[in-house]
Amino acid sequence: MTRERPPDRRVRRTKQRLDDALESLIIEKGYDKTTVQDLIDRADVGRSTFYAHYETKDDLLASWGDQLAAEMELQMAQQQTEAGSIMPSLALFRHMAEAHHVYKAMIGSRGGDIATAMVHSSLLRHATSGLERRPDAGNKTTIPIEVRAEFLTGSLFSLLTWWVDNDMPYPPESMDEMYQELTRTA
Amino acid sequence: MTRERPPDRRVRRTKQRLDDALESLIIEKGYDKTTVQDLIDRADVGRSTFYAHYETKDDLLASWGDQLAAEMELQMAQQQTEAGSIMPSLALFRHMAEAHHVYKAMIGSRGGDIATAMVHSSLLRHATSGLERRPDAGNKTTIPIEVRAEFLTGSLFSLLTWWVDNDMPYPPESMDEMYQELTRTA
DNA sequence: TCTGTATAGAACATCATGTCTGATACCGAA
DNA sequence: TTCGGTATCAGACATGATGTTCTATACAGA
Predict the structure, then answer these.
(1) Pick from A131, A95, A105: which is nearest to A30 by CA?
(2) How far is A178 from chain B (nearest CA, A)?
(3) For the segment A136-162, what is each residue's pLDDT rounded down to a tens digit?
(4) A185 inside 8 A of chain B by CB
(5) Which CATH number is correct for B7-54, 1.10.340.30, 3.30.750.24, 1.10.10.60, 3.40.50.300?
(6) Does domain A57-182 have CATH number 1.20.140?
């Protein structure tokens, strides 16, 4: 068991700066158009310093995205225990509402894919385990769980992105209700 | 009314070569990693020739994707008139099965986004008009058509991509049935 | 205070993109 | 078949982003 040493304060500062720079640049000009040069300028960090911590721009994005995902997981875990719903959809709608600047900026840019892929597996896990745990009262469908899980995940995603992209025309609670009703069959 | 002149035979040949090169390269190494240099090497075409016809790599992809979309539209239009279903899902599953090499190669690469975006609007149109035309027998939902259309489109997409990405474990007809059942509510 | 490590700054090689040139080959219409 | 218009080729070139490497300096933690 090798003891984890807390990172140097300088390292923490540098990473924090880069994270902040990334977020503001994503909102400002989108992930695609953001260059490494932009990042280190905004973060006021040396070029070699950047590459000392991250291999590529995508690497930074992934690391930054992990933090968002962690927050998300927290909120999802809460709803999971509360309601009997399979997907933690309400938590997701609320979470996206909070950070909507970022998500809207990422939709359509390549950063969206990376973020999407990161969250997708996590959501799919929720769906699968939720379906397995479910009493399945009066549900005589023969559709494999795999397919149903993918359906639940994909349709939720589509509503989430549509909603944010259209500047959230309905409150999170309404979106959640609609999603619940639309996926009654699954 | 300016009469449309058919393009020079040389132009046709060049574009055909580039289209072929694009398709084979997408399958071979993915869209992202394909460079303009790769394209013109494979197509055996001069660099300046490429830029005489397309502004960027994405431009070529879009033009090439239009052809796929056109084929798709054809198959979709047929099913539309036949069955009473809202979405031409069966036609889509069959279409993707035919060109699955290409689609699977594009899933996850940035090319996927561009292609996805192209098809998305077309599918959304189908969904919207289908919902408007529908008799709505015994359907007392208050969910706005916009949301339902997005739901139908998004969930269909997710099943399509999952299906192709997992090497089509079920026949197109089964996938279509499952999709129909899962979206009974909408 | 002292040692190890992170950082700055800048130079550098590499690679892909997109532009531009003039010479050549080809097309389609007369 | 000829001829004018145009597509193509080959290559050079400018540009901009990426990632590497170096040394001197600043700082953290013990």
Answers:
(1) A105
(2) 7
(3) 655 667 899 999 999 999 999 999 999
(4) yes
(5) 1.10.10.60
(6) no
